[in-house]
User: What shape does this take?
Amino acid sequence: MLEEDMQLIRLSKQEFEAACKKHPQYNFMQSIYNADRREKKGVIPHFVGLVNQDEILACAYLSQTKTLRFFSYFECMLGPMLDYHNKEVMDVFFHELTMYIKKHKGIYFLFNPNIIAIERDENAEIVKGGIDHRHIRQRLISLGFRWLENINENPLYTTWYFIKDLSSIQNQEQLMDSFSAKTRYNIRKAMESNIQVVEMTYDELHEFEKILEITANKRNIEAQNLQYLQQFYNSSVTSKHAFFLKAQLDVVDTINKLQEKLDENIDELETVIAESNNLLSKKKKSKINAYKEVIDAYQTRIEQLKQEEQKVIVTSAALFLMTENEMNYFVSGSNEKYNKFFSPYLIQYEAMKRAIELNIPTYNFYSTNGNFNNKPEQEGVYRFKKGFTGVIQEKIGFFDLVINKPIYNIIQQLKKLKP
Assistant: This one.
């Protein structure tokens, strides 16, 4: 293959979709569905491909954001998609792509290839003899790009993911068996607690916004607003590439069911006491104490629910994105007041069941941090995901290139002057 035979061209949306869906690096961020969503927010889409005759060797969805009227920032999230082991294709593509961005008055380019840096297990330990793509990182640096080693400090960007392989799981029984014992227990407790997981409608998204505000206040982060959720709904749910789930509790129905269980346990306790004839062995005393603990727990939960003003309580909610090859757990929140109902566990279970029904082979828990990458404050979230079993994936990271340094420096100076 000769370099002069390869050229970068702009692809139609249909051409790009046909090419990217066949690619092993395909993901929602590099989909036309994401491009359509962002275009409605004023972000200009560019679908480009490196072609040799009729063959598309590389492709990318670039997003263009205007700045200072005449100039632009360009991004390519979880892309571009190409064979990073093919030096010739890689060299030509990134050279031509840089020229393309420069032609469109781009001053800055940021991208993060959907490529594993080095294979890791569920504990983030490096797998001996596993995948090692760190040389691709060095190759990109040699092409003039800067590796943003510390970008993980920015919550908007991540290089660490938690991934579960669903390809060999055929039904919900196998799915449940694939989880850790504690996670299985928590899912069953949510079911026993009368938690119902249902799909959210557009008119219910304000409930999700409230949940996100509660979560954001707890973690001291900024919450996604109602407009953000509505844009996702209009662009991605309607095209069947996203869905919202909420876990909810019918207060009156749950009180009635808890009362039934309470009554059953009281009857059983009375039977144990009556059968003992006041001669309580150590084993019987232990059994009676266990019943008392269960009864106290039911009574406490019933009294708490009687204080609720709402007839139906939304305990947690989540947004999921999907393509033909991957489902993403993208945005979520929960009200920790109802942690004992374990509803986030049930939401995950229901989402994975849907992935299996749709023959989607990969479930991506998305951004994952913890002690393993010096984010101890997020260790609890990592352990929650780990309970569903899977592996940590570390991508090769984010890279950038300042294409027009004078203009870029002026903009950076202007940003510093803003209050």
The first strand starts at residue 6 and ends at 10. The first helix runs from residue 13 to 20.
